[in-house]
Amino acid sequence: MLEWIEQALGDGWKLTTAGGLTGEAFFAKKDNKQLFLKRNSSPFLAVLSAEGIVPKLVWTRRMENGDVITAQEWLEGRELKPSDMKDERVASLLHKIHHSTELLDMLMRIGIIPLTSDDIFQTIKQQISQLDLLKENVDVQIALKHLETLLPKTRGQKLVVCHNDLNHNNLLMSKNGSLYLIDWDNATIADPASDFGLILKWYIPRDEWRNWLKNYGIEKDDHILERMYWYLIHDSLHYLIWHLKRKEPAKVMERLRDLKELNDQVEEMF
């Protein structure tokens, strides 16, 4: 891997790993120049860069073995802290992403299929039915019932580009105050409630939800809370299955506790 990166860069660059699960991202430094390099990034990156959603794409190079190396600006700045997620700029950036026809067109062109809530519901039901440990679990059964009950409220929504992994670690603030959302490997075309629901649940106090949604651009309710909780329950079930398959019992228990909390909140609100 390193030899291909070095070949793409040329002489004189110092490489350090950028971490991550894939081990395919690096920082490169030479004199006063700094770059973030990644192997086989999605072609979606170019549009994200043009829209100012990720740091500027400097170049893209195809190697002899077919790999594609991308280089982006390495900006001085920091990841957001959990408390920063209340910043109006977070809501504004998410609104920009969800309303970008350029991003949507590119995702469609590279073959990303829009995900309807009906498709998502059938998939999660099938996955749970195949796992004996889960299909008899009371909290899982209650969660599935909530998904079924709230499903009609999720239909007929405009499906948009969603990041699908929104957390404070994926938001970067540069020294000049520019905000960027990185790590787009899980991008989907779905209900925007699947994105902002994660922010509201994990970062915003309940009594501030309406104000955050107003900053995002939602004045009309349009079943927004029902949709948000629908996707939060699905997300919790999805990761519950993921940890179970990876044989991570502590994480499984954590997800079950999270699922019970969501079930209780739905029963209180609806």
Automatic annotation (TrEMBL):
Under PANTHER family, the record lists: CELL CYCLE REGULATOR CCRZ (PTHR40086:SF1), PHOSPHOTRANSFERASE YTMP-RELATED (PTHR40086)
Domain of life (superkingdom) = Bacteria
- A Pfam match: APH
- What is the protein name given in its UniProt record? Phosphotransferase
Extract the signal peptide range: none
Which positions fall inside the Aminoglycoside phosphotransferase domain? 19-219
